[in-house]
Amino acid sequence: MLAAAVAALALLPLGYIAAYTVDVGWSGIQDLVFRPRVGRLLWNTARLVGGTVLLCAVLGVAAAWLVERTALPGRRIWHVLLVAPLAVPAFVNSYAWISLLPGLDTYGGALLVVTLSYFPFVYLPVVAAFRGLDPALEETARGLGLSGWAVFRRVQLPQLRVALLGGSLLIALHVLAEFGALQMLRYPTFTTAIYDQYRATFNGPGATMLAGVLVLLCLLLLLAELRLRGRRGYARTGAGVARPGRPARLGALTVPALLGLAGLVGLSLAVPLVSLAVWLVRGTSAGLELGVLATTTGTTLGLAAAAAVVTTAMALPAGWLAVRARGRLTTLLERSTYLGSSVPAIVIALALVTLAINVTPWIYQTVPVLLAAYAILFLPRAIVTVRAAVEQSPQVYDDVAASLGSSAPDRLRRVTLPLLAPGIGAGAALVFLAVVTELTATLLLAPTGTTTLATAFWSASSAVEYGSAAPYAVVMVLLSAPATVLLSRDARRGLTT
Amino acid sequence: MSSLTVTGVTSSYGATPVLTGVDLHVPEGGLTALLGPSGCGKTTLLRLIAGFDDPDSGSIDIGGRLVAGPGRSVAARRRRIGFVPQEGGLFPHLTVAGNVAFGLPRRQRRDAGRIDALLTLVGLDAGLAQRSPHQLSGGQQQRVALARALAPEPSLVLLDEPFSSLDASLREETRQAVADALAASGATAVLVTHDQSEALSMADEVAVLRGGRLVQLADPRTLYRSPRDLDVATFVGESVVLDAEIRDGQAHSALGVLPLEGSCADGPARVLLRPEQLRLAPPSPGAPSARVRGVDFFGHDARVRLELPSGLALSARLEGWDLPTAGADVSVGVVGAALPFPAGAADTPATPVVA
């Protein structure tokens, strides 16, 4: 029951868009959607998504191969440095670049900034896949007389396919949903168009129909991924951990490889950090309002904590059922939360605003609506970790405890909760950190007068007050850093959204 | 320490019957093995006894106390049973001591002497008490699981395939330690296994389950020598099954005239021999002959695969120091009696088997 309610909430925005589309009718859709402007947006969005995915795939696989499979010096440090860009939210990265080079408001600029923000999403799963590759396969291939390049192309690449696909899908969904970074670069896509429409006409049918097209694109991507993945199993056969392989020697190519990695890290990490530092210095010299910064940070942390508690609590029944009562219905419930959160934040926000105004005006512009949006967006992060924890505490512990005379509440206290605690904690932490840097939904749904780090940063940088925006960005980066460390350690976790 | 009586227990999973009318009695202090292939319902029966599930009908009685029956179901935690699951099931968030003390009353949980005594009982060094479960070997984990189960002095200990995840060398040693600990504690025990050698070597009595029914309940020797039907015979050990004609209390078979165990009506029948009853000798006229197809050498003994002139394949179990080579012709002799199963009588033995 609880799980069903959670799934229903997650699907609320989708349902709203669908209902609205039916309401508008075919002729209405024709009027609103088949316009040259929508065509231009579609072209802009498609080429940005395509370009970013391609670039990220090349950069991610190359970096992963260098770090995981070669004798490059300092591989551990490189690994952390290559994951670190995740600590810089895309809209902060975008701000860092555009404030240095105002000429970046082009396709090339958008491609550059978005790629640098998102390539770790390919890098991380591919590193994990490289780590899981059985070196015996590679050795067999070498034994059969294949060259190093042929081994990579014919043996390793096919096995990286699933990781690469997963990472690419993630990037495509993120680019489709990206709002802040593109708005700042003045690169028009569906998200920015929806936002402008919403600002201009509040909740006109135009915005909703654009959202419908955007959702359709997301669903198409998900469907494509499902089909590609469904055809072949992606679990590694055989038990045990694969023996680490012998790293490839780069020889004369070591220096160019190092320069390449240094370039990538420089562009994705050093440029934004230096830019932030420069603006921080300039901003503080103009006078830093510490009080405002502290209140904003407090508000953000409070919201994030509340969202973490609410979302994790909602994730518990779904994660528990998905393992303990496996079946079509429970899988469906779990999946529907994933589907719900793959809808771009701008669409979720738009749907919740409209629903709140029309159905329950008394909660419009209140914190609960904002928390609901966070929950829809970040539920899968919590569910995945809770699920993993439940999987590690099978029924047998409960049975044994019962046979030893322990009552149900006693079992909950002495067995179930201690076993689930790390998973629940990790899930809550992931949600917490995601909320800290959430911009889009907060921008649309935050009650008047409530300012978070992201929205304060946004209003300052939109007014081209780069200096006064910097402190907020710095706090966000500092708060995101722990999550990044977590990710670089456990490459598989937390990558489902 | 109590006896266990299961009467007419039936259980089904959805529409599929899992157990049909199972009767079982385990005497006080005895160790009974539930033996059967996977899917025969043995684990289900164990879970019903433990109280994790309820039977559809029938009753279960532990030490004279009805724990499951019409309109009555005592919760698992009130049945005073000790449960040792597959792979131990040690709580990963607790130390060895924490695991062993789990079922003890709160005041006794900190009693180090008590925990040391329990660890010693299962043959473990008391120095392991502060380790985490993942720092132990598979065999040590099983022993800790047994110590945990024995700690609250249960009336009945249930072991669900406790050795199946251990490798061969560790299995032998752990079996011995577990058998000793159970004997020392005097506990009544039920052991679920699909390994016939484990059932035969550890248990006082073996209950063979097949297709949800209890086929035979007997002590290991009786079970091996006088199985109820040929199916049980081949399940509990390697068999040599021959077609024979029974005349005047003797079996006339491809291996000559064999004496019978028990009596049997004249007529066609099948007889059971064990491979270790066969003896090989150089070929001699008049004696049944066979050709050696191959030899599986195990060191302490060997299996010699034979083919009779009729084309029938059978195997002999011989000591390892004097073996024929593949391709040789030998004569085959038989030691001891053959157990007859009249043909057409659904493979049931002619004489009632003593349980």
Short description:
Helices cover about 80% and strands about 0% of the residues of chain A.
Question: How would you portray this structure in words?
Answer:
The complex is a heterodimer of chains A (497) and B (355). Chain A is mainly alpha-helical and 497 residues long. Chain A has one domain (2-228, 261-489): MetI-like fold (Orthogonal Bundle), CATH 1.10.3720. Chain A is built from 21 helices and no strands. Chain A has helices at residues 2-33, 36-69, 75-83, 90-100, 107-118, 120-132, 135-143, 148-177, 180-184, 190-201, 205-230, 254-285, 290-324, 328-341, 345-358, 367-391, 395-403, 408-436, 440-445, 453-462, 466-489. With 355 residues, chain B is of the alpha+beta class. In chain B, the strands form 4 sheets. A 6-stranded mixed β-sheet of chain B has the order 7-8-9-3-10-11, with helices on both faces. Chain B has a 5-stranded antiparallel β-sheet with strand order 2-1-4-5-6, covered by helices on one side. A 5-stranded antiparallel β-sheet of chain B has the order 14-13-12-15-21, with no helix packed on it. In chain B, helix 4 (138-150) packs parallel to helix 5. The longest helix of chain B has 18 residues, at 168-185. Mean pLDDT of chain B is 88; it is low at 349-355. Classes of the chains: A mainly alpha (497), B alpha+beta (355).
Helix content of chain B: 10-25%
* SSE run of chain A: HHHHHHHHHHHHHHHHHHHHH
Q: What is the straight-line distance between the termini of chain A?
A: 25 Å
Question: According to CATH, what is the class of the largest domain in chain B?
Answer: Alpha Beta
- Regions with little confidence, pLDDT below 50 for 5+ residues of chain A: 232-242, 491-497
- Assembly form of the protein: heterodimer
Indicate the proportion of strand residues of chain B. Answer: 35-45%
Q: What CATH architecture of chain A would you give?
A: Orthogonal Bundle
CATH topology of the largest domain in chain B: Rossmann fold
Pfam families (chain B): ABC_tran (PF00005), TOBE_2 (PF08402)
Keywords (chain B): ATP-binding, Cell inner membrane, Cell membrane, Ion transport, Iron, Iron transport, Membrane, Nucleotide-binding, Translocase, Transport
Protein name (chain B): ABC-type quaternary amine transporter
Enzyme class (chain B): translocase
